[in-house]
């Protein structure tokens, strides 16, 4: 009897702990989601009219054509580079205020298309660090007039240092913005996960309570009821 009470009490304690964790997880998840959405709304980001799969198709085609032409020329000069895929986004945020993680991620995908269009399909690592001299052979450049070889770069007459490739800053800006947008998406998904886990904890907690009652308390109650009903049955049988 003592062991039964200990196990029953332990079951109720476990149920209470799971319910508490479930409630806390639900609250934290919903608060996290609200924080992400509020932060995104405060930035007042609105999708441009071309941010639909159909509207961006022309820019995607142009970026792919420019990328193919550029990489063909570079590979022909002896430069071994592999083009990164330019993929049309499958979502749409045209004219839409970015107010949740999913829309933020979608916006970031369209920003990548815009960036590819400005760099002819080159990524940050494929672009030269400096402005190349006009007579620099193609194989020493990125095909867009930049090089990573300081000896073949234009030198600033004042600082005597190679002139940085300003076009490369496009990728720096893109990376900074999309990292923030994708972080919002990740935070939003984590908050959803927290809500799901919270609901699971609640169900498990109620399940433990029911299980503890059914296994340890209910048989005792049934047995007690049988004993209480025994005299009445004996009286009925006697009559």
Which SSEs are present, and which pair or pack?
Elements: H1 2-43, H2 57-76, H3 101-119, E1 130-131, E2 146-147, H4 169-238
Antiparallel strand pairs: 1-2
Helix pairs in contact: 1-4, 2-3, 3-4
Description:
- The protein has 239 residues and is an all-alpha fold.
- The chain has one domain.
- Helix content is 63%, strand content 2%.
- It has four helices and two strands.
- Helix 1 packs antiparallel against helix 4, helix 2 packs across helix 3 and helix 3 runs antiparallel to helix 4.
- The longest helix has 70 residues, at 169-238.
- It is elongated.
- The two termini are 36 Å apart.
- The mean pLDDT is 87.
End-to-end separation: 36 Å
Name the average pLDDT.
87
- Shape estimate: elongated
Secondary structure tally: strands: 2
The helix count comes to 4
How big is the Rg? 33 Å
In short:
This protein is mostly helical and 239 residues long. The protein has helices at 2-43, 57-76, 101-119, 169-238, and strands at residues 130-131, 146-147.
């Amino acid at each position: 009897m003592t062991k039964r009470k200990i196990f029953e009490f332990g079951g109720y304690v476990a149920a209470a702990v799971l319910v508490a964790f479930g409630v806390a997880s639900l609250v934290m998840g919903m608060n996290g989601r609200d924080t992400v959405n509020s932060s995104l709304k405060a930035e007042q980001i609105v999708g441009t009219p071309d941010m639909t799969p159909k509207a961006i198709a022309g820019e995607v085609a142009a970026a792919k054509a420019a990328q193919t032409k550029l990489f063909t020329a570079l590979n022909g000069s002896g430069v071994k580079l592999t083009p990164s895929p330019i993929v049309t986004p499958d979502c749409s945020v045209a004219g839409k205020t970015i107010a949740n993680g999913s829309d933020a991620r979608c916006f970031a995908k369209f920003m990548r298309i815009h960036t590819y269009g400005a760099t002819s399909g080159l990524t940050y690592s494929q672009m030269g660090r400096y402005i190349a001299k006009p007579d620099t052979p193609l194989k020493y450049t990125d095909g867009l007039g930049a090089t990573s070889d300081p000896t073949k770069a234009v030198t600033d007459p004042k600082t005597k240092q190679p002139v940085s490739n300003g076009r490369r800053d496009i990728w720096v800006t893109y990376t900074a913005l999309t990292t923030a947008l994708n972080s919002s998406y990740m935070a939003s998904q984590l908050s959803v996960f927290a809500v799901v886990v919270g609901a699971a904890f609640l169900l498990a907690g109620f399940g433990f309570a029911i299980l503890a009652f059914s296994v340890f308390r209910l048989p005792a109650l049934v047995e007690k009821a049988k004993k209480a009903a025994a005299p009445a049955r004996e009286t009925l049988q006697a009559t």
